[in-house]
Specification:
The chain is an all-alpha fold and 63 residues long. It has one domain. Helix content is 76%, strand content 0%. It has four helices and no strands. The radius of gyration is 23 Å and the shape is elongated. This is CcoQ/FixQ family Cbb3-type cytochrome c oxidase assembly chaperone. Keywords: Membrane, Transmembrane, Transmembrane helix. It comes from Psychroflexus planctonicus.
Length: 63
């Protein structure tokens, strides 16, 4: 691990990478939580029923 640490210390601006990845990670989950709490309930219900519906009845009802 000593070799990797010495190598990474020679790279200019390396201290920004962990900060950027933390911001991306945090932003993704904040946006995801915001979407979950603001999503329409009937859309969520429709999506949750998809695995239980029969595809043939779904296709015939659209015609």
């Amino acid at each position: 691990m000593k070799f990797a640490k010495q190598y990474l210390e020679t790279i200019e601006g390396i201290e920004l990478y962990p900060i950027i990845s933390l911001l991306i990670f945090f932003s993704f989950f904040v946006i995801l939580f915001w979407w979950v709490f603001t999503a329409k309930k009937d859309y969520i219900q429709k999506m949750s029923d998809i695995p239980l519906t029969d595809e043939e009845t779904e296709n015939t009802s659209k015609l």
